[in-house]
Amino acid sequence: MTDQVIDVTDLRRVYGGGFEAVRGISFGVGRGELFALLGTNGAGKTSTVELLEGLAAPVGGRVRVLGHDPYTERSAVRPRIGVMLQEGGFPTELTVAETVRMWAGCTSGARPVAEALEIVGLAKRSGVRVKQLSGGEKRRLDLAMALIGRPEVLFLDEPTTGLDAEGRRETWELVRELRDNGTTVLLTTHYLEEAEVLADRLAILHEGRIAAEGRVADVVAAQPSHVSFELPEGYFVGDLPPLAELGVSGHESEGRRVTLRTNELQRTATGLLLWARDARVELGSLDVRAASLEEAFLRIARTAEGGERGETGERGERGGSAVPFAEKEMAA
Questions:
Q1: Do 322 and 313 form a contact (C-beta atoms < 8 A)?
Q2: Which of 64, 77, 86, 159 is the most exposed, fewest CB within 10 Å of its CB?
Q3: Do 266 and 200 reside in the same domain of the chain?
Q4: Do residues 172 and 258 share a domain?
Q5: Does the record carry Transport as a key word (predicted)?
């Protein structure tokens, strides 16, 4: 990767009592790239992001942001990054404009207050006290604070939590525009659709390790698609054409309900439907579902819970691969 802005090598973080929250992870983020960090509850996302932001020092490994150690060289990094926390904690009695003005006074090269509020759609709420804002409006204010210094690198921790569907889409467009203008973005989110829509690449953490990393399309493509249906009375899986000939990689059945896993969805669905037509069989509750990030996420969660380490794999040195891993959560 050229012009790498975030460089993480064998990063480790241990809390009091010996709990290892981050267990030797490595990844990089290029300039102008949007990188999503996903994972189950307790996976280590927040612990990792805090190390990148310079809020704590790692116990092992190396992290560089814009070529500097964000903890020991904080003065060189902090003016060039923006951080949107899960909750800003601003004084509730100040107005929106007063809050932004206060923050701008502590920031080098700050945007004008009106510009910052216009960007996040709060210009008409500038005179409202913070305590009177809705949850979604408070998230917009958090974002305005993160953008006030025109950051080269932007850390977004659950940026659309509390926003309605329209607000979420508007925030996505803003983040895209920032990325397209050269801002490097590292995003954590509960919304898998958000990661799928926005991210150039992503990593999925589990128990402090990277279980999958890569372009979204590659992570999704590594997971099987599914065709599920109900066979009529008197029919069984053995009555279907040979599953290997349909491109099926595995299957489950429960009563009359059958689910086929495949990496060749069109081949499997076509073969199955042609068989049903020729056999004059009606397949009940037919559901043909392509692989998705959510499917990948959930599959990894189930695999991890079952202890099937051989299926998930673990990423070692940079450039190593891991089978994409899918889960429903997100808060470290």
A1: yes
A2: 86
A3: no
A4: no
A5: yes
* pLDDT confidence band for 1 (50 / 70 / 90): very low
Residue 13 β-bridge partners: 22
Report the CATH number at residue 199.
Answer: 3.40.50.300
In angstroms, rounded to a whole number, what is the distance separating the alpha carbons of residues 201 and 195?
Answer: 9
Q: SS3 of 311, please? A: helix
Q: How crowded is residue 144: how many other Cβ atoms within 10 Å of its Cβ?
A: 26
CB 163 within 8 A of CB 136: yes
Q: How far apart (Å, rounded) are the C-alpha atoms in residues 293 and 220?
A: 5
Residues 184 and 73 in one domain: yes
Phi, psi of 173 (to 5 degrees): -65, -40
pTM: 0.78
Residues 6+ apart with CB under 8 A from 266: none
Answer yes or no: are the C-beta atoms of 79 and 27 closer than 8 Å: no
Residues belonging to the chain:
332
Q: Per residue in 182-207, pLDDT tens?
A: 999 999 988 888 999 999 999 999 88
Using the 8-state DSSP alphabet, how is residue 318 labeled? T
3-state SS class at 208:
coil
Dihedral sign of CA atoms 88, 187, 33, 136 in order: negative
Helix (H, G, I), strand (E, B) or coil at 55: coil
- Burial of 127 from C-beta contacts in 10 A (0-12 / 13-18 / 19+): exposed
Sort 187 into a burial class: Cβ within 10 Å, 0-12 / 13-18 / 19+.
Answer: buried
| Phi, psi torsion values for 44, nearest 5 degrees | 115, 10
